[in-house]
Structures are given as C-alpha cells and as structure tokens.
C-alpha cells in the first residue's frame, strides 16, 4: 500500500527538513511503519537510527523522538536501519531498507552524483540525476511498507531512559563537560578533546 500519511503531514515534514528527497522519504515511511505498529507516539518511544541521513529528520518530526529528549540515539553504522521501541507497551522492532526498494538505480545514481559533486557533470547528466531522484522518490512513496523494509522484532528496550549527570570541570581547558564524557589521565579530569590531545594511543 502506498504512503497513508496525509499531504499536510508530509508538507510539514518537508518544511522541517528544508527540502524533499529520497532520503527524507525513507525516514518518512519508516516513521509511518512505527505509527502503524506502535500507535500514537508518546514519551516512552525510543528510536535508534543507524544512519545520519535526511530521513532522521522525518523520524523526529513524526514520532517525537529527538536527540534533546534522549530518545533518539544515533549509532554510526552507515546502515539504512531504524529500531523503534515503546517502553510502556514493552514492544519494538527494527526496520532495514530492502536493497530492491531502490529499484536498481544505485549504480547510475552514484556515478552521476559523484560527477556532480566533482563539478564535472554535464547539463544532461544533471537532468538525468534529477530524473532518477524524482523517480526513486515516487517509487518509495508508492511501495507497500512490507516491500520497502524487512522487520525484525526487538524483545528488550534498546537504551535506558536518559539520565541527568553531573558536569565536571576539565583541568586542562577549564570547560565543563558531562561526567560520562570525561576521562582521567595522569591524575587529572579531562574533557574528551583535551584527553585526545595528551593520550598518545588515541
């Protein structure tokens, strides 16, 4: 079944992100799946995203999972995968974009985008890249969610609720840093940037 979100909701997501693109559409459809499977968003929802691409903005806009609230977690795995969990309901799932969802355009699109980024693309190549992007976006909006993502059940909460931690003063730069992001070195408490400068193995 094609995307069931209403045009006004989609327009708000596009406005939040700043433009419409295939990456945003992937996140939009992932959030649509979360809404379908888990119901109305709440503060008990958690999302772990394994990518930092455009679609994460759609997830923030539609599910209320945000970095600031601590219920949106980025794990930099470079995978088009999203885990959603409702702590109150005790259920969740991981979505992984199926390779075939992209319609076999990756090789040509990658070549064209590389030429555009290098400033070498001809007007015809730029037009073709735009055509491929628009076609991919239409395809992603029209696919059934089961065709677009593989779903695996998650049995346990992926992350603990956010905690407020003490801030410590770095003894090198004098700036305050969250306790969990400091290191002890040579008897001093250091923030991560200062620790990186003095620890030879980093």
From TrEMBL:
Record domain Zinc finger DksA/TraR C4-type: where: 167-200
One term of GO molecular function: zinc ion binding
Record's keyword annotation contains Magnesium: no
InterPro entries named in the record: FmdE, FmdEsu_dom, tRNA_methyltr_O, Znf_DskA_TraR
Recorded superkingdom: Bacteria
Keyword terms of this UniProt record: Metal-binding, Zinc, Zinc-finger
SUPFAM superfamilies linked to this entry: FwdE-like
Pfam families given in the database record: FmdE, zf-dskA_traR
Domain Formylmethanofuran dehydrogenase subunit E: 16-149
Gene3D superfamilies: 3.30.1330.130
Protein name: Formylmethanofuran dehydrogenase subunit E region
């Amino acid at each position: 079944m094609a995307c069931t979100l209403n045009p006004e909701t989609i327009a708000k997501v596009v406005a939040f992100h700043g433009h419409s693109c295939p990456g945003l559409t992937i996140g939009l459809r992932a959030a649509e799946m979360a809404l379908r499977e888990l119901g109305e968003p709440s503060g008990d929802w958690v999302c772990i995203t394994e990518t930092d691409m455009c679609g994460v903005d759609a997830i923030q806009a539609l599910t209320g999972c945000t970095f600031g609230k601590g219920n949106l977690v980025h794990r930099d795995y470079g995978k088009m995968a999203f885990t959603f969990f409702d702590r109150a309901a005790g259920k969740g799932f991981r979505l992984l974009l199926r390779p075939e969802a992209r319609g076999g355009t990756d090789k040509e699109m990658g070549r064209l985008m590389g030429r555009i980024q290098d400033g070498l693309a001809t007007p015809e190549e730029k037009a073709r890249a735009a055509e491929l992007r628009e076609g991919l976006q239409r395809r992603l909006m029209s696919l059934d969610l089961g065709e677009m993502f593989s779903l695996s059940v998650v049995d346990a909460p992926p992350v603990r609720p956010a905690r407020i931690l003490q801030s410590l003063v770095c003894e090198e730069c004098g700036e305050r840093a969250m306790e969990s992001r400091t290191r002890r070195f040579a008897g001093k408490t250091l923030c991560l940037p200062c620790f990186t400068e003095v620890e030879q193995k980093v």
